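Protein Entry — a single chain follows
Fields — amino acid sequence, structure tokens
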Amino acid sequence: MASHSLEKIKNINVEDAHDEQSFFVGEKPVSDEFEGRYEILEEIGKGGMGVVYKARQPALQKLYAIKMLHSVHNNETILRFEREAKAISKLDHVNLITSHDFGVSADGRPYMVMDFIEGTSLAEIISRDHKLPLRQTLEICIQIARGMAYAHAQGVLHRDLKPGNIMLITQPNGGTLVKIIDFGIAKVIEENAPSNLTQTGDVFGSPYYMSPEQAVGRGIDERSDIYSLGCVMYEMLTGVLPFRGASAFETLYAHMNEKAPTLKLNALKEQFPVPVEKLVAKALAKERNDRWQSMTEFENELNSVFKVLDSPFKALLQNIEFETPNFIKLKVWECAALGALIMTILVASILFWPTSQPVVHDKPLVSAQQYLKEQKLDDPNEMARLVIMNGSPSVALDALDCNDDALKFFKQRNDIVKLGLSGTSITGSGLKYLTHLPLRQLFLNQTGVSELSALVNIPTLEFIELNKSLVTSETLASLIQLPNLRSVRAQEDSLNDDAIDVFLKMPSLEFLWIGKNPEFTDAGIDKLSNATRLKTLRLTNLHIGDDSLKNIDRLKNLKVLDLNGTNVTDNSLEKISHMQLRELHLSSTNVTDEGIRKLSNCGTLDRLTLNDCPKVSQKAVDKLAESLAHCKVEHFKKARFR
């Protein structure tokens, strides 16, 4: 990112990011403002911009927090606040604070009524403990990312994500629940600030967690929230902010122009695995296009790292001495799991895996260093990252530069039950090195695999993913010979109606997901009504309509039906309404208000999605939700950021 002119940020007015009450105003509570609705109990926080009261709703005897800003005498600002508050009030997620009411008082003070949370802010935790352990940091950040991903899907940005706006609540089981607070407040405050502080190009917010684009007053999107979360995660792990100048001016200048320091630089003697360093560094990239492009993508990467670090060899990984050269550092993380797991895999297999599964304990496994030497592999990316998930010996080679020869490694193993090869360079020829394994799950997404004949020698296989592979309807036929195959996922492949005949011949198939395969026709999909074992059927983004579902009610065992992105209309809903479904997905279809009324008697439904259905109104959805009291009904239009 090119160096920014100092003149652009001279007039910045910001408050200390560690003042978690920076949005509060100083008015005293006035009970008659909420007479008959809320009883003001006490002032629980205040600051330069507003005040927060603890209140009780007399009829429900429930506690709430009421946040009031300073008086506003600008109708446009009030309307903007109401639009923001209305959007926030629709957010319904376990990791987000719920807003119940909003308005403007008689003297022009905007207010919002929210859940009253008895917890501890992340800012307090960091202040008390200095920094958090890696595992706890990941657990918290995963919840933050999950909640923010949901908010972004609704078109709502946070704009002021910081430790003071993250509350931690201890659960009865000892776990921690994250609640994110203060959505949209930064934008409202910016508009209410005195005119001499809001000239063109000025910035308002929390400087320690502000993205470069926000610092110079550019338009922001979800990647700005990702940057802020990267700053929060950095502080949690090191106890130090990634950028902190002598003034707000210097801090924001650093955000815009200085490269983010590594975790190692500020963590004293503590070492972090390379994937953790990379994860944080990517979140803190100066340019938005170099960061994670969505909060969901960030969450997925956090989960991937957590699964590895939460495995039985976590302690060994933490004790590894990381060497200086970058090549060796990469090798230690992506390959050392082999050496670490060698010492623990046998014990872990005995402790966590049922005794009926094969367990090898009479043949020593080679170390990562020995394997590199013997195989003469110069690229450590060809090494496996071994993990134990749910007590099952598993290997993830996903997205590594792994070819067929690298699969020879598995010839010396016979305890792997879950194998991820997605995004690698393997072909069908390499699968012959896996036929002795007791595999139960196999991931072959985005590979060069077309021929599947080698898999007939793995009778234990229960689950396979083939998304974006080179598999055809003809080569798919090899899977018919697998007696225990229960789940097949095949999206964006070169499949056509001939594949339906293959699916029908699979003796144990219960879960089928086919999507974005343009060659499927209504007649072909209709034949799936003969697959009476099916419990889950996902037919997403296919060019199919009502004729494909003429006999769908024959599937008496079906519990989940996903028709997202198809041309299905109201005509199919009559049959569907008589099925004993637990989940029904109709997002981005042609169903209407009149059609969804037919679903009002679907008493077995636990979940119904009607997102981005242009002919479905919120009023009709609300009425349907009343009829389906125990069903979660999702409905929102395509996300558009304001």
User: Anything to note?
Assistant: The CA atoms of residues 243 and 251 lie 6 Å apart.
